[in-house]
């Protein structure tokens, strides 16, 4: 019964809400002069429009949220943009990302989310240690809890999430990527959970997600040694799904992530969400319970209009037009 209730609650996320911006294909085109000028944070409004934070919201450019359109409609790109801090995780970035995640979580028009960096050579350098140094000891625990909750929310998004790692992903930056369903890295990108160098441990899910990704023994080795690996080694370890040679623009991983999102886009969006739920919940339990979870999730797709559209399209020998209904 708990499984059925969980799937039913999850299924309620499919309420229509649209929010599209003119699509960008390369990171340079993300927003004009994205690599040289500050970006504004944008959010969808309740009626499907776009709201930009006013200029007095001083740190609103730490994160850019882009809703692609045209053939890429349904793909949302989160672009971290803290060049002076190497995209380090600050209080404000946590706040911005939490709001962005909340906005897409309830939007059934969103079919996939790409998390990337707009700063060349950097994905995310982990915690903002300069900000951390100014915190009172009593503030550190609550902040880490908020960062952990943010990464948990990222991992709990109902649609596929793809981390595009075109540069260094260290500490909390790698933990953020580990919360995504799929990781794509440039071969030159550096990755590692390096917290033991600072006499602490990964505190935002790294000790739990890394072993699930690459195995317990290897995860222990990397964490104990605070070892940093490149994209090629990360691929051999199973830490990333794809490793691609970096291009002159520095966005090879992003472009590969976009290709993957385009592969997901034509498929039934409710089916993909239910498949993700079945996999994520099922992998944590025994096989019998996992099969029950799969059955409960399958039951959610049976009454959908998309399932009927898929059958009709197959019969008529045409591409299906899924609406997430």
Automatic annotation (TrEMBL):
Key words of the record: Acetylation, Lyase, Mitochondrion, Transit peptide
Residue ranges crossing the lipid bilayer per the database entry: none
GO CC, one annotated term: mitochondrion
Gene Ontology MF annotations: enoyl-CoA hydratase activity; RNA binding
InterPro entries: ClpP/crotonase-like_dom_sf (IPR029045), Enoyl-CoA_hyd/isom_CS (IPR018376), Enoyl-CoA_hydra/iso (IPR001753), Enoyl-CoA_hydra_C (IPR014748)
GO biological process, one term: fatty acid beta-oxidation
Principal localisation: mitochondrion
Gene3D superfamilies cross-referenced by the UniProt entry: 2-enoyl-CoA Hydratase, Chain A, domain 1 (3.90.226.10), Lyase 2-enoyl-coa Hydratase, Chain A, domain 2 (1.10.12.10)
PANTHER family linked to this entry: ENOYL-COA HYDRATASE-RELATED, METHYLGLUTACONYL-COA HYDRATASE, MITOCHONDRIAL
UniProt entry tagged with the keyword Acetylation: yes
The gene coding this protein: auh
SUPFAM superfamilies tied to this protein: ClpP/crotonase
Chain segments annotated as coiled-coil in the UniProt record: none
Protein family per UniProt: Belongs to the enoyl-CoA hydratase/isomerase family.
Protein name as annotated: Methylglutaconyl-CoA hydratase, mitochondrial isoform X1
Subcellular location: Mitochondrion
């Amino acid at each position: 019964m708990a499984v059925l209730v969980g799937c039913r609650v999850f299924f309620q996320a499919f309420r229509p809400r649209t929010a599209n911006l003119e699509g960008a294909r390369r990171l340079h085109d993300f927003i004009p002069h994205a690599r040289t000028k500050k970006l504004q944070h944008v959010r969808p409004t309740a009626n499907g429009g776009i709201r930009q934070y006013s200029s007095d919201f001083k740190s609103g450019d730490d994160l850019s949220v882009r809703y692609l359109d045209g053939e890429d409609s349904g793909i949302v790109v989160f672009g971290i943009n803290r060049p002076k801090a190497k995209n380090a995780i600050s209080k404000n970035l946590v706040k911005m990302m939490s709001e962005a995640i909340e906005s897409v979580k309830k939007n059934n028009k969103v079919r996939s989310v790409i998390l990337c960096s707009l700063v060349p050579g950097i994905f995310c350098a982990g915690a903002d240690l300069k900000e951390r140094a100014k915190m009172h000891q009593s503030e550190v625990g609550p902040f880490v809890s908020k960062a952990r909750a943010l990464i948990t929310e990222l991992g709990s998004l109902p649609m596929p999430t793809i981390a595009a790692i075109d540069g260094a992903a260290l500490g909390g930056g790698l933990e953020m990527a580990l919360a995504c369903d799929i990781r794509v890295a440039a071969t030159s990108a550096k990755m590692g959970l390096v917290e033991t160098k600072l006499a602490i441990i990964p505190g935002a899910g790294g000790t739990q997600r890394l072993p699930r990704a690459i195995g317990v023994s290897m995860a222990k080795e990397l964490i104990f040694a605070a070892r940093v690996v490149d994209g090629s080694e990360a691929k051999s370890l199973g830490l990333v799904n794809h490793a691609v040679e970096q291009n002159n623009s520095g966005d090879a991983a992003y472009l590969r992530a976009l290709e993957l999102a385009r592969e997901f886009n034509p498929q039934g969006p409710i089916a993909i969400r239910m498949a993700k739920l079945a996999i994520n919940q099922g992998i944590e339990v025994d096989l019998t319970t996992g099969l029950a979870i799969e059955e409960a999730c399958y039951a959610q797709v049976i009454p959908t209009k998309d399932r009927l559209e898929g059958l009709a399209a197959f019969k008529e020998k045409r591409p299906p037009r899924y609406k997430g209904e």
